Amino acid sequence: HLAAMERTEPAFARVARLTAELFFEIGEVKVMEALIQAPRVRGPDGDSPVLQLDEDVAERLRLGTKQVRQYLSRLHTDRLVVKLRADVAKEKSAYEPPPLANEAPLLTAGSVRCYYGLDYTTLVDSVLYKLDSMERALEAERRSAGEMQLYHCPRCSTTVDSLSISPLMMMEGTLKCETCATELDEVDNSVQMKSLEQRKAQLRTGLQPLREALREVHGTEP
After folding, report:
1. Which single residue of 75, 99, 168, 186 could bond 80 by disulfide (Cβ 3.0 to 4.6 Å)?
2. Are strands 159-161 and 46-49 parallel, antiparallel or unpaired?
């Protein structure tokens, strides 16, 4: 198991790095790297990365704690990092077990600490979902552009689609703008379709390294 982990963990780390680089700013990229390079503890299955206090991550990166918390929050929102809230005194060891429930004091803002780390299985699932959502949104936009005719007003720049045309706009036999009564021009959808195809091609090229990394970890465990 240890040998398998040593082979697969770098591949999962590559997915994490590429995801941060493609979809986030440099701050999140640095934080992701700090989580990948987390201190490790010896366990029965070998060395394992530990969860880190947000303020410890900030100290390692030599950045402000508030700023690092913002970066961690964005990564956590996209389910790329895991977060554990605990009532742990600052001076206690990160590895000390929490107190029993009947011994735990009331949580206060000053006593709550947030630990962050990586769960590569959850991270990969989130990345796959994100990529699928992007493709679906682009395909829906392309399909809509192909099925729906747009009309543009040359005077006030109002744009309407074929589903938004009201009977009042057609009363005089021509399609007129509801805002200024100017005759509307039919929009050439081929321009929009070409733009969408270009975006699709750029997305495919830009995401190729990430897709290759995802294929490398498919069917394996971190």
Report:
1. 75
2. unpaired
Q: Give the number of C-alpha atoms closer than 13 A to the C-alpha of residue 130, restricted to the C-beta side.
A: 20
Cα distance between residue 42 and residue 195, in whole Å: 53
Rg (alpha carbons) of the chain, rounded to whole number: 26
Q: Higher confidence at residue 32 or residue 2?
A: 32
Two structure tokens written together for 59: 């100290």
Contact 48, 40 (CB under 8 A): yes
* Residues 54 and 94 sit within 8 Å (Cβ to Cβ): no
The H or E element containing residue 56 is helix 54-61
Reported as a single tens digit per residue, the pLDDT across 11-65 is 999 999 999 999 999 999 999 999 999 988 776 655 667 899 999 999 999 999 9
How many C-alpha atoms does 85 have within 13 Å on its Cβ side? 8
How far is Cα 192 from Cα 8, in angstroms, rounded to an integer? 43
Residue among 179, 180, 178, 183 nearest 165 (CA): 178
The dihedral of CA 47, 53, 59, 62: what is its sign?
positive
Q: Quick one: pLDDT at residue 124?
A: 96
pLDDT one-digit tens code per residue, 158-216 = 888 877 777 776 766 788 888 888 989 988 778 778 888 888 898 899 999 999 999 99
Q: How high is the pLDDT of residue 50? A: 85
Sheet containing strand 82-87, edge to edge, reads 52-53, 112-117, 82-87
